Amino acid sequence: LPENYRIEFGREYRTLVAPRQRFALVVLLSLLLIYMILASYFESLRRPLRLLLPVPVPVLFAVLVLFVLGFSLSIAVLIGLLILAAMVILQSMLLLRAVPPPERRLEITELQRVFRRSLPPHLLAVGVLALFFLPLTFVGGDAGEFLRGIALVELSGAAASAVSTPILCAASRHLYIWTGRGGPSDPNIETASGNA
């Protein structure tokens, strides 16, 4: 730069960046609110963590796919990540509901049977999600970039969730047992039907 010249970001740039930063904060606060709602529902601080354990893998995979494809973290992508997190929490709830309570020791073959029985609905939900969001990746025009961002997040996250959520739900059950929690005197134990 020549002497006595400088570069500054204008007001227009600051007005474009500020909503994105505020929305990222809203997403984080939304995840905290989801945790607090689950903690009050289950009357436990640990059980919601079992439901939230599978969330980071699909979210990180979706962000990685977006990075590879050259998408930025826009508001549409953040909305998609929030929807993806809610979908993964719901799927982990459904999968953990089918697992017998932690006080009952399971053989690996029995655990495999439980997940084989609960896996088709999980994969069906992922397939329906893919059928809904796949056409949005081909939308053109002004709204195309917005819809493509959401669709790519949901599709890549659903693909990662189809593999990682059952594995992490099974791991969370075993972790719950290995840490010595979930004995018969624990009032926060899930039953096979999902009731406490």
Q: Topology as H/E string?
A: HHHHHH
User: Looking at the structure, what is the overall shape?
Assistant: elongated
- End-to-end distance, in Å? 68 Å
Helix content percent band: 55-70%
Q: Point out poorly predicted stretches.
A: 182-196
Radius of gyration: 21 Å
Task: Average the pLDDT over all residues and give the rounded result.
Answer: 76
Number of helices: 6
Instruction: Report strand %.
Output: under 5%
Structural class: mainly alpha
Number of strands: 0
The description of the largest β-sheet is: none
Written overview of the protein:
By secondary structure, the chain is an all-alpha fold. It is built from six helices and no strands. The protein has helices at 11-42, 47-52, 56-69, 75-97, 108-133, 144-178. Helix 3 runs antiparallel to helix 4 and helix 3 packs antiparallel against helix 6. The chain starts with 10 loop residues before the first helix and ends in an 18-residue tail after the last helix.
Provide key terms for this protein.
single chain, 196 residues, 69% helix, mainly alpha, 0% strand, elongated, disordered C terminus
List the helices and strands and how they pair.
Elements: H1 11-42, H2 47-52, H3 56-69, H4 75-97, H5 108-133, H6 144-178
Helix pairs in contact: 1-4, 3-4, 3-6, 4-6, 5-6
In short:
This protein is mostly helical.
